[in-house]
Amino acid sequence: MKKLSLSVAFAAMMLSSGFVACNKDDDAPAPKSLYTRMTNNSPAALAKVVDDFIGIVVADNRINGVFVAFGTTSSQEKVLNLRNHLIDQIGEAAGGPFTYKGKDMITAHRGMNITDAQFNALVEDLGKALTQNGVSMADINELVGILAPLKPQIVGR
Ligand code: HEM
Q1: Which residue has the higher pLDDT, 8 or 57?
Q2: Which residues line ligand 1 (CB under 6 A)?
């Protein structure tokens, strides 16, 4: 009995000292990035989200006037430029292999006088595009949480 309690004490000491390696965490799969969860690592899936997003924005009377007024919708080249910047920006924000190379948000939105309501409408449209591409509400909220701090750089400029 004494022997048993000694070995129990020894095992407890080794465990609490961290001396006994615990493999549990090593074997657990690495957590997936938001980008992986959203797109299954497919750049084409992200491009599809952004294409749908632009389609929804262009059809949204609450905000499409801004894109018309600033000439974005006047040429395919401009829409393509915005699309590619959004892919990089969202892809990078979600932890994917992308690097945003466009203008900073203050410069990009200067002179537009974007309102809170317009900002919220655009975020809602992004949520719709993500939902229709099978992204979960939790992941949508996580992405919106990453983009939301940009609001002061975009609204009222
Ligand atoms: C989280 C919110 C937003 C993000 C992440 C965002 C992101 C961007 C990006 C990446 C660009 C391209 C910058 C470049 O060309 O270098 C851009 C441009 C632009 N954004 Fe936003 N934006 C947001 C909100 C808004 C809102 C609310 C509006 C209007 C309702 C808006 C209207 C525009 C317009 C008109 C352009 C110019 C496109 C062009 O150059 O033709 N954005 N935005």
Answers
A1: 57
A2: 63, 66-67, 70, 72, 78, 81-82, 85-86, 89, 102-103, 108-109, 112, 114, 118-119, 122, 147, 150, 154
